[in-house]
Automatic annotation (TrEMBL):
EC number: 1.4.3.4
Species per Swiss-Prot/TrEMBL record: Exophiala aquamarina CBS 119918
UniProt cross-references to InterPro entries, sorted A to Z: Amino_oxidase, FAD/NAD-bd_sf, Flavin_MAO
GO molecular function per UniProt: monoamine oxidase activity
Coiled-coil region(s): none
Family membership: Belongs to the flavin monoamine oxidase family.
Pfam family, one: Amino_oxidase
Amine oxidase domain span: 99-225
Reaction equations catalysed: a secondary aliphatic amine + O2 + H2O = a primary amine + an aldehyde + H2O2
UniProt name for this protein: monoamine oxidase
Enzyme's top EC category: oxidoreductase
Length: 238
């Protein structure tokens, strides 16, 4: 079902005119969340899409317009392109150049699939047109927070877990094993985005950490859940 939605979206975005948004009146004036509900019943596939959108944008799918999203996908070159890392510089002389981590690439054109709010972190030469710059400054990413739970050992591996889960009940939407084994640092990294991040960030520190641990403990069950609380340190990032 996940693949079916991706395939249908790849078809739907083809009809979007990214040069003239007034030409997109044929697309339904609905939210991305409603689009997903039309494509799939409640279940894992729908939940995964919601979690992925949270991870990508920090926003709930119901807060994103369908036309905006299809325009975003088409501008990026399709669903599969949304994971591409952006260049840090883009300059134009006799040819265009994109620089990433010190390397210089020459090409006739540079295709940038980074979210528009991140354009302000890219050095363009010559500068972007005025209307494009105004648009870049007017849009923002949704809120993101991360809570990292550090342990003395990767106990979750020893009991058959990989440290990753998806849970739309919040506050954590995604978690993953963020360990560095060579440094003997064992961690579960928890991503909190969108409405969950706004609500979670308003809690006192002690309650923020407890909310994360309670959720993970509930997810893995009572037999192993108590081990979630045996952290040696917690780190919050916003």
């Amino acid at each position: 079902m996940f693949t079916n939605i991706a395939n249908e979206m790849d078809v739907d975005y083809q009809s979007i005119n990214i040069r003239d948004l007034t030409a997109n009146s044929h697309a339904e004036d609905i939210s991305l969340g409603e689009y997903f509900r039309q494509k799939a019943p409640e279940g894992f596939a729908l939940g995964f899409w919601k979690a992925w959108i949270h991870d990508l944008t920090g926003t709930d799918p119901d807060d994103i317009g369908l036309v905006y999203w299809l325009d975003f996908v088409k501008s990026a070159g399709g669903i599969e392109s949304l994971g591409t890392k952006p260049s840090l510089n883009a300059s134009q002389s006799n040819s265009d150049r994109a620089t990433l981590s010190g390397e210089v690439f020459r090409a006739r054109k540079v295709l940038i699939s980074a979210p528009t709010p991140l354009y302000r972190h890219i050095k363009f030469s010559p500068p972007l047109p005025t209307d494009k710059k105004e648009y870049v400054e007017s849009v923002h990413l949704g809120p993101f927070c991360k809570c990292i739970l550090l342990y003395s050992s990767p106990w979750w591996r020893q009991v058959g877990f990989n440290g990753s889960f998806i849970d739309l009940s919040g506050p954590v939407v995604f978690s993953r094993d963020g360990s560095s084994d060579k440094d003997k640092m064992y961690a579960i990294s928890c991503l909190i985005g969108g409405k969950y991040a706004r609500k979670w960030s308003c809690l006192p520190v002690s309650r923020r950490v407890k909310a994360v641990k309670d959720q993970l403990a509930s997810t893995i069950g009572p037999e192993q859940g108590e081990k979630i609380y045996d952290t040696i340190q917690t780190i919050e990032m916003a």
